[in-house]
Amino acid sequence: MLNVTVDNTAALAGIEQRLRKLRDPDPVLWNIGRFSRALTFQMFNGRRPDTTVVRGEKWNPLKITTLAQKRALLKKGQALVADRPLVRSGKLRDSLMSDRSIQVRSKGMSYGTDVRDARGYPYPAIHQTGSGYVPKRRFLFWTDADLQQILKMAIDHIENKLLDFNAYVRRS
Predict the structure, then answer these.
(1) 102-115 confidence digits (pLDDT tens)
(2) What phi and psi values does residue 82 have, to the nearest 5 degrees?
(3) DSSP string for 91-111
């Protein structure tokens, strides 16, 4: 009688490690967050008063009083540009470009900012949704094409993990 003992501890540990990676959505969620940040960066860099639609809907032009305020601040070195909506000091834009703007948690990904003005108002939210005195200028959104790209990113992530898993199982 012949007895053969196979120690498959290492193979099972490797399979379990790859299954954990397959179940971990964090890498693709970080990529979606970075993608969202890149889209927002395009919004801030592409908007000019003479453009129509760069991404999404056309924004209302700046009010004459806002232009005057921004020009005065620009002369004092307290503003970056005078004629672009949502860019005065760059605080909003910079907060959205930071690594802290992306949060990945067990329930998903969030992207945004909680910056406030000197009086404590969450002015990004006011600009995003509009109010009685501030026109709506959405800067955080996904178009249908963006959603298709995000879906492709998720599918590619899963397929790559499955390929890695299959290759490991064949080697084990």
Answers:
(1) 999 877 999 999 89
(2) -100, -25
(3) HHHHHHHSGGGEEEETTEEEE
